[in-house]
Every structure is written in C-alpha cells, then in structure tokens.
Structure of Short-chain dehydrogenase/reductase:
Amino acid sequence: MQTIFITGASSGLGKAAARLFQARGWKVIATMRNPEKETELDRLANVTLLPLDVTDAAQVKLTIQKAITSGVDVVLNNAGYGLVGGFEGYSDDQIRKQLETNLLGVFRVSQPFVTYFREQNRKGLVVTVTSAAGIAANPLASVYSATKFALEGWSEAMNYEVNQFGIRFKTVAPGAMNTDYVGRSLAFVAHDAYSPLWNKMMSGFEDGSTNVVFSEPSEIAEIIYQAATDGKPQLRYLAGPDAVNAARERQEMGLQAHSEQISKLYQINENGK
Ligand SMILES: NC(=O)c1ccc[n+]([C@@H]2O[C@H](COP(=O)([O-])OP(=O)(O)OC[C@H]3O[C@@H](n4cnc5c(N)ncnc54)[C@H](OP(=O)(O)O)[C@@H]3O)[C@@H](O)[C@H]2O)c1
C-alpha cells in the first residue's frame, strides 16, 4: 500500500486529495494545523491525522519523523493562502507571513523528505500545488504570485538535482477552484489608491467578463492523482481551464499577449482609470 503525506488537508483541495487517495487504496497522512477539529477524515480507514503548521520548524521536524516511521512515497505540498491587495499597502509582517507559509513552508517540509527518500533508496515523489498565478500573474496578488512562480522554478531545479537518486519533483498548477479559499484563505490588504482596480476585478468575477472558470477541488485532485501515479517525467500539470489558458497566453502567445489581455480585462491605463 502506497502512502501520501498531505499538508493543509483540513479543507479544499487538500481534503479532496485526501479523500481521493484514500478511496483508491492509499494510506493517507493528512496533516493540518488543528487536527482536533477534523470530523470527516478521522473516520476514514487508513487515514492518519497529524498536526502540522508549515511555519513551525520544530513541528515540521517532529511530524515528519513520526510520518516516516511507517513509510511515505508521495509528499503533497498543498498548504497555502493568498495575500491580496496593492503591494504598497503590505506590511513587512504580511509579506513575511506569505513567504513563510507558501514558500519556506514548502522548502521546510520537502527538505527532510528528500533526505529520507535518498537514504532509504526510495523512489519518492514531491508534488507541489502552485497556481495559474504562478505561470501568468494578475494584479493585486504580487507576492502570492512571487511565491508560486518561485515554487515552479524551485521544483524544476529540484527535479534535476535529485533525479540521480530516483526522486522526482512535480507541480500541479490549478486555475480557480470552488473552495472556501476566498472566504478563509485570502488575506486582503485595503489601500484607497487600489480600490478602483480591486472593484473592477471583483465586478469582472461577478459578471463573468474575466472568463474565470471554477473547477471543483475533486477535479483538481484527480490531476494530482495522475501526477502521483502516471510514472511520467512530466514537470508541471496544468489543472483546470484557467491554468491551461494562463499557460497558453504566457508561453505560446508570449508575455506581451498576457499583458494586453490584463489591460483589456481591467482597462488599466496610465491614469489608473
Ligand atoms: N482556490 C483557488 O482558487 C486556488 C487556485 C490556485 C491555487 N490554489 C492553491 O491551492 C492550495 C489549496 O488551497 P484551497 O483552495 O484548497 O484553499 P483552502 O480550502 O483555504 O485550503 C488551504 C489550506 O492550507 C492550510 N494552511 C494555511 N496556512 C497553513 C499553515 N501555516 N500550515 C499548514 N496549513 C496551512 C489551511 O489550513 P487551516 O484549515 O488551518 O486554515 C487549509 O487547509 C493553496 O496552495 C492555494 O494557493 C488555490
């Protein structure tokens, strides 16, 4: 029986992935900040809950030590949240917390697993959830995008670095998902100068003019399952129509095409009107 270790399994995509892998006969180590509050995953066979805040280095160490006693094959770096608003208004603490969670949290969790996979001669796999915003950026999520772009580069480099030991690194880049992300995982920073742009973006979401297509977390979990099981040396899995569009705009049509698309969508000109 294969085992997957998941971060941020308390909700959304992390929980959907935990359910799916469990249903397909895997052992699941579902980690979350408050396992005592979990009422669904703890009832499933072959699911172990462990406490994990990815910003807490001591807890990361302890939880991984516990997890590897029974063997781990795949690590899913899923935990993350979005800092949104005008960059000018971000405090140092807000920026640091975003980097601590989305970027350093992933590094912190992955590093001991690389050592474990190498020393145990295990063909381990590390799958990291990035975002369409890690392929083509949008305004008002600059530091979030920075973390997700960084994860794409890091994961690619890691893959080349540890392939020699039979270890692989992959990313799954979802577009918009129907999770509680907006309600629970967006840290909004208000700034008067950026309110008109923010309002334009929000009304674009509401009237559908941004062409955002929300995928169900269960659909994105299927792509994570594919990444974990297809045995292919593929580095990145685009997950959902928005991610496919972001990659097409950015890679096939080029950076300029994406920039024109953003200007058209939000009608941004030099006067910010
Ligand atoms: N939703 C989208 O539209 C979308 C699009 C592209 C990419 N993503 C990415 O998908 C991933 C999952 O997001 P989601 O949409 O499923 O949102 P979600 O339902 O809000 O899940 C986010 C998870 O991350 C956990 N988390 C946050 N900070 C943490 C920390 N310091 N330590 C451990 N866990 C922490 C949360 O735990 P708590 O329950 O303790 O808060 C929660 O389980 C994120 O990496 C996100 O950036 C989301």
The mean pLDDT is 94. The domain at 3-266 is CATH 3.40.50.720 (Rossmann fold).
